[in-house]
């Protein structure tokens, strides 16, 4: 499906990866899960291209549901695999701990992960590192915007001439662990540092793109600034109301958001105060969009124990 000018979406209803076409040459943004490989072959046929048209696989971050078939593509095409330097040391195949799948809403993702070979995601044996601000010399020439928090090396990849940003899991429109929709951060237990992830959103807002293409969920066509506004106003979600278990340390952060304030800059649209709704697991705090073009979250979120 073409979701922007010469940008095509593949994967499933839970996991996205994308193909950028530029003068007959191709760049993949992420590589889904290993079982998504046949989709690439179908995509190439539809585009009238062959495997040797794939020049690069650019990863938004190092989690296994984005690395997927990258190593297979690297060995069967001329492509190089590229990743931010802060994620390159992880061997690019971090797998979520099983305790994150305690929610019934996460079971479809678990089923797809097992069906699509997530646990057997191959290690990427050779990668090219990039850094913040780099404009990659690959088809589409994406510009790197470093958005640490979900992982240390999470990035948005921006096509300035097409008004598009690929956000990976730094901002999604579907959390596959909770089934929550709309622009948001991922479940806190999936992030290495949720507070840093929130702070990083200001950099995404500053891109000014019209279309946000996340790693999970539907495209957002209301602009990056509005997506960030919505994400900062979304209720906090914790991996476990009683606290994440130790098994998640190598994949995710250890706690929910607890800092007293987070601020992000967004282009002005109007001045208004939005009261974020509370949930059974967390109490969100008011969000104010001020004339100074800053979204400020004040107060201290409080985790609420479920009734037993």
Strand order of the largest sheet: 1-2-3-4-5-6-7
Using only C-alpha atoms, the radius of gyration works out to: 19 Å
CATH topology: Metallo-beta-lactamase, Chain A
Cα distance, first to last residue? 46 Å
Q: Based on helices, strands and strand pairing, what is the structural class?
A: alpha+beta
Spell out the CATH superfamily. Ribonuclease Z/Hydroxyacylglutathione hydrolase-like
- Tally of domains: 1
Strand percentage lies at 25-35%
What global shape is seen?
globular
| Order of SSEs | EEEEHEHHEHEEEEEEHEHEEEEEE
Overall pLDDT level: 82
Helix content: 10-25%
Uncertain residue segments:
240-266, 268-308
The appropriate CATH architecture is 4-Layer Sandwich
Largest sheet: number of strands, sense, barrel closure: 7 strands, mixed
Number of strands: 19
CATH class assignment: Alpha Beta
Q: Report the total helices.
A: 6
């Amino acid at each position: 499906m073409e979701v922007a000018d010469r940008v095509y979406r593949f994967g499933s209803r839970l996991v996205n990866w994308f193909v950028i076409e530029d003068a007959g040459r191709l760049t993949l943004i992420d590589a889904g899960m290993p079982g998504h490989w046949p989709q690439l072959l179908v995509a190439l046929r539809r585009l009238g291209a062959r495997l040797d048209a794939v020049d690069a696989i650019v990863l938004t971050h190092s989690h296994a549901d984005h690395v997927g078939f990258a190593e297979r593509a690297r060995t069967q095409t001329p492509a190089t695999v590229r990743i931010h330097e802060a994620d390159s040391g992880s061997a690019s195949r971090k797998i979520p701990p099983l305790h994150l799948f305690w929610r019934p809403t996460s079971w479809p993702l678990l089923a797809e992960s097992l069906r699509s070979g997530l646990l057997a995601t191959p290690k990427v044996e050779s990668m090219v590192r990039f850094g913040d601000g780099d404009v990659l010399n690959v088809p589409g020439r994406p510009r790197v915007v470093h958005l640490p928090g979900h992982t240390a090396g999470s990035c948005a990849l921006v096509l300035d001439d097409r008004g598009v940003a690929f956000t990976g899991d730094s901002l999604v429109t579907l959390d596959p662990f909770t089934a929550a929709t709309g622009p948001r951060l991922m479940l806190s237990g999936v992030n290495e540092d949720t507070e840093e992830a929130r702070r990083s959103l200001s950099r995404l807002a500053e891109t000014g793109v019209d279309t946000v293409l996340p790693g999970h969920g539907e495209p957002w066509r209301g602009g990056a600034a509005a997506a960030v506004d919505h994400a900062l106003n979304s209720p906090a979600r914790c991996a476990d109301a009683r606290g994440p278990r130790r098994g998640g340390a190598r994949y995710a952060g250890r706690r929910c958001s607890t800092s007293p304030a987070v601020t992000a800059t967004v282009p002005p649209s109007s001045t208004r105060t939005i009261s974020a709704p509370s949930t059974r697991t967390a109490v969100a705090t008011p969000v104010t969009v001020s004339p100074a073009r800053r979204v400020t979250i004040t107060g201290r979120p409080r985790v609420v124990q479920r009734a037993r």
